[in-house]
Automatic annotation (TrEMBL):
Species per Swiss-Prot/TrEMBL record: Streptomyces paludis
Protein name as annotated: CGNR zinc finger domain-containing protein
Lineage of producing organism: Bacteria, Bacillati, Actinomycetota, Actinomycetes, Kitasatosporales
Source superkingdom: Bacteria
Limits of the Zinc finger CGNR domain: 155-192
A Pfam match: zf-CGNR
């Protein structure tokens, strides 16, 4: 079980600020960052904690080796959603994850009146890290797919990169996880064309 260390701003905080930090897009960006950090065979516990802190968690996160294993298992399951190239495949992957039992029923919580009301799919406010990560990620990716009627993410188009990315936003869908990957592939294509 995890210890409550999640960022729980007081209701005195600006509602707009809380909403921005915990929006569907912010949750999806956290999902991407965690999937990428946890996709290596032996994820760095402090690196994972740093990602969680960068996305709003605070305090002593108390990540145990079992927590890291559960988070990594959830990350590997979520990669299937990002690997889907067609909306029907993304829907199938999300429905499979939602039905597998790693998520609870949709519920609203305010974490004991410390936050504005918001939806959760995990079984309890004190759910284990892996369950929380899988459930909150599924919820965010489901809403993004619902809103745009296309897969919410993809695998980086660079063959040398294992990362996932969000494809949605303004403009055409993204293909690369970073400018570095996009530049590396453009330079390689240019060199191939010159050769």
């Amino acid at each position: 079980m995890r210890y409550i260390a999640r960022m729980e701003p007081s209701l005195d905080d600006s509602h707009d600020d809380w909403s921005t930090r915990h929006s569907v897009r912010a949750t999806a960006l956290r999902t991407v960052a965690l999937v990428n950090a946890l996709s290596v065979e032996h994820p760095d516990p402090e690196g994972v904690a740093d990602v969680l802190r960068a996305h709003g968690e605070s305090g002593d996160l108390g990540l145990t080796p079992d927590d890291l294993g559960d988070l990594r298992a959830a990350a590997l399951l979520l990669r299937e959603v990002f690997a889907a190239r067609r909306v029907d495949d993304a829907v199938t992957a999300l429905n499979r994850l939602l039905a597998r039992g790693g998520t609870g029923a949709l519920r609203l919580t305010s974490h004991g009146a410390t936050t504005p009301w918001h939806p959760h799919l995990d079984s309890d406010d004190d759910a284990p890290w892996g369950e929380w990560f899988l459930a909150s990620s599924c919820l965010a990716l489901t809403v993004l797919l619902w809103d745009d009627q296309r897969p919410p993410g993809a695998l980086c188009a660079s063959p040398a990169c294992p990362n996932v990315l969000l494809t949605q936003g303004g403009g055409p869908p993204r293909r690369y996880c970073s400018r570095r990957c996009a530049t590396r592939e453009r330079v390689a294509a240019h060199r191939r064309a010159k050769a």
